[in-house]
Specification:
BirA Bifunctional Protein, domain 2, binds 4-amino-1,4-dioxobutan-2-aminium adenosine-5'-monophosphate, 29% helix, five-stranded mixed beta barrel, OB fold (Dihydrolipoamide Acetyltransferase, E2P), 441 residues, 2 domains, binds magnesium ion, eight-stranded mixed beta sheet
Length: 441
């Protein structure tokens, strides 16, 4: 009889039909003259049973995990008490080996032990991706990027694709990756913010999903050298508008991911206790955070009590966020610990209209601010940072030719994913993570 070629995700719609499936052998076991295979094709998992002559065939005994096969058979609903993915199995009547994977010492198991040396897994990332956890995170990632685009479309924000090779810095010279650009000095972009700002007069509110690069010297669980940066810039807004827009984008994006038929159940599995955040988030000013940290005996980087102007470093920030246990909009950071482009608060020029979104388990997932609006104050900000304003003429022109009160933010895709999928490190949330010393595969 004829067999329709289908993907694993639609086997449950084909009960009683003869179908053809193609994929990788994810699990393999023989029992009482039967051979059970769990087949994986990227869209899901299905159990296949080989019996009789098929199970006894010479070829069946050579099958290995990660081999590819084409298999034909009828999809049957499993009786009560038997379990397999989707509650069905394919009763095979014919199969062919497409590519036999090695056995013995060259075999690869996608069942990754908890105590496996992480550097081995990173060297073998191309194979490790086949494991259930990493592939699940990548599917949630795909849904997240789709969800965030959907939210921006709904909010009327226009997508642009800024360049990766640039001659300006955004977030400090110490983390720039330099490159030789036809004999000129250029950098890999740290943030597309400056380019987004220039788009406002042409396109109105804009966003991009673009790689950002940071030559981070330190090994931490939440820093990558290359990450996928979701950034948006909005014109004619107040700081309050910016904060509520950020809440909307985060809550709606998470809602759409949880509603997604593929990603929703994966988040549930990876992070069973995950609670979708609700607007409005808890708001906390920087000075109140210092007070909170001091009251709770959490010291600054020098082991002393926090004082105004101190950076709240990763460990302290996470301790505070985990203890408070809900999303926090941390606002009004001092001028001296923030970037050159940030607008000062009207009621206190020592602090800026800036915000970090902190999530339990990860800490900062978003950083944003209102921007300086005038040419002179911007040039002063650049000089304070030791930056020669000549290379920034195009950015300064944004203020010269019709300035506006505007602001924006950047969301770290891998950090949101680490929070959503309960991963210890953002390295699990990037396809091929780049960090200090690692640029392969
Ligand atoms: O706080 P950051 O440095 O802010 C900016 O780049 C602004 N120019 C964004 C803007 O306003 N358009 O970075 C924004 C976010 C962080 O909150 C974090 O989630 C993520 O980007 N991020 C990193 N993620 C992984 N590895 C790194 N090294 C990261 N650095 C920042
Ligand atoms: Mg930041």
């Amino acid at each position: 009889p004829k067999a329709e070629k289908i993907k694993v995700k639609s086997v449950t719609d084909s009960i009683g039909k003869r179908v053809k499936l193609q994929g990788w052998i994810h699990r393999l076991r023989s029992q009482k003259g039967l051979v059970f295979v769990v087949l994986r094709d990227g869209t899901g998992f299905v159990q296949i049973v080989f019996s009789g002559d098929l199970a006894n065939a010479y070829q069946t005994s050579t099958l290995t995990v990660e081999s590819t096969i084409s298999v034909y058979g009828v999809v049957e609903k499993l009786p009560e008490g038997k379990s397999a993915p989707g509650g069905v199995e394919l009763v095979a009547d014919f199969y062919e080996i497409v590519g036999l994977a090695p056995s013995g010492k060259d075999s690869f198991t996608n069942q990754i032990a908890e105590d496996t040396d992480p550097s081995i897994l990173l060297d073998q990332r191309h194979l490790a991706l086949r494991g259930e956890v990493l592939s699940s995170v990548m599917k949630v990632r795909a849904a997240l990027l789709g969800a965030v685009r959907r939210v921006y479309i709904e909010e009327g924000v226009c997508e642009v694709t800024p360049p990766c090779m640039v001659q300006t810095q955004v977030e400090g010279g110490s983390t720039l990756f330099k490159l030789d650009y036809y004999g000129q000095e250029a950098y890999l972009t740290q943030s597309s913010q400056l380019y987004l700002e220039t788009c406002l007069p042409a396109l109105g509110d804009v966003y991009c999903i673009q790689e950002s690069f940071r030559a981070e010297k330190s090994h931490t669980r939440r820093h990558l050298s290359e990450y996928t940066h979701i950034e948006a810039e909005l014109c004619f807004i107040t700081f309050e508008d910016l904060l509520s827009h950020i809440e909307t984008v985060i809550t709606k994006t998470v809602q759409y991911v949880l509603e997604d038929p593929v990603a929703g159940p994966l988040v549930k599995k990876l992070n069973p206790d995950f609670e979708a955040p609700k607007s409005p988030f808890k708001r906390m000013a920087y000075v109140d955070a210092l007070e909170w940290l001091n009251e709770h005996g959490i010291p600054n980087e020098d082991g002393e009590a926090f004082k105004f102007g101190d950076d709240i470093a990763e460990a302290a920030e996470r301790k505070m966020t985990d203890t408070i246990g809900v999303p926090i909009l941390l606002t009004r950071f001092p001028v001296e610990i923030k970037s050159f482009y940030m607008k000062k608060c009207a009621d206190d020029p020592r602090v800026t209209e800036s915000v970090d979104v902190l999530m339990p388990t990860v800490g900062e997932i978003t950083g944003g601010s209102m921007r300086l609006e005038g040419v002179d104050e911007l040039v002063a900000g650049l000089r304070r940072e030791g930056i020669d304003e000549k290379e920034y003429y195009w950015f300064i022109d944004q203020r010269k030719y019709g300035t506006s009160p505007h602001g924006g933010y950047g969301l770290g895709t891998e950090r949101i994913l680490a929070w959503l999928c309960q991963r210890f490190t953002v390295r699990d949330c990037s396809l091929y993570p780049r960090f200090t010393g690692r640029c392969k595969p």
